[in-house]
User: Fold these one by one.
Assistant:
Number 1:
Amino acid sequence: MTLTLEQALGLFAHSASFWWVMIPSMFVGLVVGALPGFSAANTIIVLLPLTLALGPEVGMIFMITLYTSSRMGAGLPAILVNIPGTAGAAATPLDGYPMAQQGRATQALAISFTASCIGGLLTTLLTLALLPYVAQVIYVVHSVEMVVIMLFGLSLIATIAAGDPLKGLIAGFFGMMIGSIGSDHIYATPRGTFGFLELYDGVPVIPALVGLFAVSEAFLVIEGRSILTAQGQAMMRQSSWREVFEGVRETLKRWWHVVWTSLIGLAVGVAPGAGAAIASFVAYQQSKAFSRTPEKYGTGHIEGLIAPESANNGVTAGTLVPLLVIGIPGGATAAIMLVVMQFHGMTVGPDLFLQSPELAYGAFTAMAISYVYLAIAALPMARYSSRVTLVSTDFIAPLVLLFSLVGSFVPRAYVFDMYLALIFGVIGYVARKTGYHVAAILIGVVLGPMFEQRLLIVLKISDGDLGVLFSSRLGNVLWVLLVLSLAVPAAVAWWRKRANLREAMARGQAAEAGGSRE
Amino acid sequence: MNDEDGGNPNRPDLGAELVIPLSAVALTAYYATTILDSPWTAQATAAVVGLVLVACCVIFFVKAGIDLAAGRARLGIMTVLRPLDSLPRKAGLLALTVAALVGMPWLGFTLTSVLFLALAILLLREGRDPFRTILFAVGLSLTWFIVFVLIFKRQFPVAWFDTQLKTIFAPLLALVGLD
């Protein structure tokens, strides 16, 4: 599974020659990514007749470009109107939307796109170069390790709750309780479903996502005539290409942040069953935990936007690894890719790299090229799509509501899901008005069931012995890292607080001494 | 803002802040009743999550009780309703949303979208510029019909209006190979 430089360059040139497929599918991907409920997976399903007719190589390039661009497109409404297009972009509005409200939407979009492109490109090239080693992750990450990885994501609840720990914990565990609704993962016993058959598969993520963020936002924005602050409106009217380049520059200045958060995405993406939502939450939590200015997160902080965007694009290359190396799809889109490849008579697995290297390696080179094309298309998009924030809320609120309801209907085609989105909207509205963080509720809803599933598998295998959670070497390393990532920032904050207090006391004593001398 | 028009902002309205913990406790209690006779795999995680959640809520209730007894807070819900001048707009928009959801199975996706968008925008703009608003609602709903129903073939609730639209657009779709 190794490739010479000459072969690699040849493959890149070969992939770039498919621009006629990549550019149209890139725009389709950006649009479907931005529409809540429309994922790359169901768009590929809709366009399956076309994909199957294209032939294996063109079909694969089409699917990969659609996948990468839809991942990037999901950040667009998350930043502009606080509607994450997919669960993978759920951490994006935490800092992206406050930036938009401050009139920095153009800069925020440029940062998001740049971080996405660099993160995606870097992890794709890294995967291509180190494929045999990256593929090892599949064999060492099992349910025990996944339980700890998910705890990394869930610990974001505690990080978010820093301002008001009790409310944060209530919101997070309330979300986990909601996430526990549905049949249990082993015996399919229905739990807390209120008698609704539609909830037997659990609470669907998209209605929860659009309800908590978008529906509640629609009712909040009509309190004013604009989603922007007065200062933000003035800034947005003067917005120009300068903000775009400023965004690119700010991201490049933080290149190391992009690198390590995208690597988190890659590592999570390679593990089958994990996804962009976990990656972006983990990256955001880690970014905040090791930041020198954690208090700025959630207020429109650039690093808080870079982390989830580079991580969820780091996932894309990772998802292809289990699919191409061992023939196990790591997610819904990869599963459809597998179907298409099997339709064309391709056997996915190690043999593919020997029999059809242009297809196996070509998948990664096409992904890398698609990020290059995306980088070119994204900057004008950042410049002009940010103008959406200037539209009056009289138009935005009904549009957001209708989009949200349609988006919540699309994945399962249940009218019930639209009602569910509205209920989540009411929960989100009350939560936001009373100081409970909707992101904490969402993390519980999204990660809670995944965590439960993995934990139950572990406990079932070990006959209920919790000690199994500490039985793997990698798992134990992850446990230590988890404890460190929670304890170190808390210790640093305590130390800083103590130092500040000492300084203030010393200053007070000095002033007192000065006063008594006078 | 004084007590007459919505309460004293210096004394937090704890009634509003209690909505989420009370809902959480109610959900946990209901959930517990549904897993009493279930195997341990169905109970394990939910029991742990439920216990922690209830414990957090109880601490919150105790803190709230102390604040109420000390007069530092009041049992109002005005935090959720403020600012009061936007309340009619919010109530109207909520009523229209519920009406759209209830009416969609009978009116179909497209007509519901047109009516919801037009009425909601007119409500928020206090009836200004009705012609352009209706034109905007019709144009957008038709675009969505073409994208979601015709191209992406999503199974939205359809009624007479949608069926007629499908008949009108069928020859056009056939022409571009999307039938």
Note: The two ends of chain B are 60 Å apart (CA to CA).
Number 2:
Amino acid sequence: MSDAVTQRKPGVAAAVGAGPRVPTFVVAAAVLAAAGFAVPWLIDSQLALTLMTQAVIYAILATAIGFMIRQNGLTSFGHAAFFGMAVYLMALNGKFDAVPAELAVLAAIAVPAAFAFLAGLIIVRLPALSFSMLTLAVAQSLHELMLRWRELANGDDGMPVRLPSTLFGVDIELFQAPSTMFVVCWVVLVAVIALLTLVARSHFGVLTVAIRENEERTRYVGYHTLVPRALVFALSAAVGGLAGVLFALYNAFATPGALHWSLSGEALIMAVIGGPHAIWGPALGAVVFFVVKDAVGDLTEHWPAIIGATLIVVTVLLPQGVSGLLARFTGRRAASKP
Amino acid sequence: MTAFALEGVGLTRRYGGFAALDGVSLELEPGEIRGLIGPNGAGKSTLMDVLCGRGGPTAGRVMFKGRDISRLSAQARRRAGLARSFQKTNIFPALTVREQVALAARMAETDNTDEVLDALGLSELADRRAADIAYGDQRRLDLALALVGRPSVLLLDEPAAGLSIKESIVLALLLKELASSWNVTVLLVEHDMDVIFTVSDRITVLNLGRVLAEGTREEIRGNPEVVRAYLGSSIE
């Protein structure tokens, strides 16, 4: 049989997943990234910048979860596993001085991705609810491991993330001062959204949406469906790991909380509020989450109840999330909505 | 000797003690349109499944252009040029018409997305989401997903299901024209006898998992066993 799989025709890639021209899109992303540089000039408060930096880190984690929902139609209840895995890989590397910190940063992204890919080959085949429960179970297992193996990770007391004075040739202070770290995290967030948008518009992106929509039919037009689904999970895990790296660099401390289900839950809530049908939706959800948390947190300690009410309102009235509402106002097609 | 475009040899599919297919053999000449009819439960869809790789036969072989493809996956059979459509509309609702046809074309020998969209009257709907187009258009899109890339053999499971009489006949004539101009061999399961007798070169009749009769339209119409088992008075 001829290997038709390897034959690619010019023009097909452009037809599949055609969207706005790439240069325009890249310029828009660059302008958005550059806008982040203005924020520390406009906001003096270190506390506000700290909160905003944390919000952007969680926005990256929420983006990872949203991408998974958008492309695979699967909801992860345990994405903190990849976030926390990256944090602890950085911390343990500092403790044992195993490899240079730069390599540890790369490993903290690659290891969660590889773990997700291999696990994905098994668990993405399962019904959606089973997948969700298994991701939760894996994350909680890692949480318990770090909590109870005190000799390794110092349990609930946590452990410092020892870092060298420079990382990738940059003074480590840059990653730990709110004014500069906010810019770093913001640029990373914009880059992640841009990258995932390009992936979603590529042949791979259209293929994975097709699999999400109708896996059987995708097989009967000639595609294998398992590896693409596992790759989406791996890419999502890599982005979760990237968020964990930024968290570890900024806080220089690891606790089991980085693996806890409540972190997975909060990031999932952000993704749902923002609406995962748009790649940028979950990041917007993170903004809403932190604004509500900050505004209501000053008034009552029961702010999670307000977040819960917000989630209910969004789920009932805006099933495509806040980004869906914005898309409706701007008249844009909600492509590939889950 | 010229190989058949598609050949089933002694195909049997058992579910426990029940044989949904019981030693069915059929040979499709290159370029012919073969109608496959029979009462509900006769084994028509099971035969389509076995031929396209949706579960293997319990016994028997599937030959494609003289090659035994019984062990090939559904994906590999599609890439080799054996395509199928489904009884229920089986498309990708969130993708645009063009996105999904182009996606299917990418796995085929030939990228004729525009040609297929044009031939099936879908060009003007190309940028609309499949979920937003009419049912009749969705049925033609389903057909487009199978036809794109010019497969050599096409298995069609009730392509006219849910269409009006007029739409069914239009679809049948279109199918006959495309099969002829693109030299596609077609195995067509259809309950609409107008469609079957309009397009089929030969007809195979299944009953209780076995081949009851095979022949031209006239032979099938005149076969008393077929009339008794399936056609009844519908062709009087």
Note: Strands of chain B lie at 6-15, 18-28, 33-37, 59-64, 67-68, 82-84, 153-157, 185-189, 202-207, 210-215.
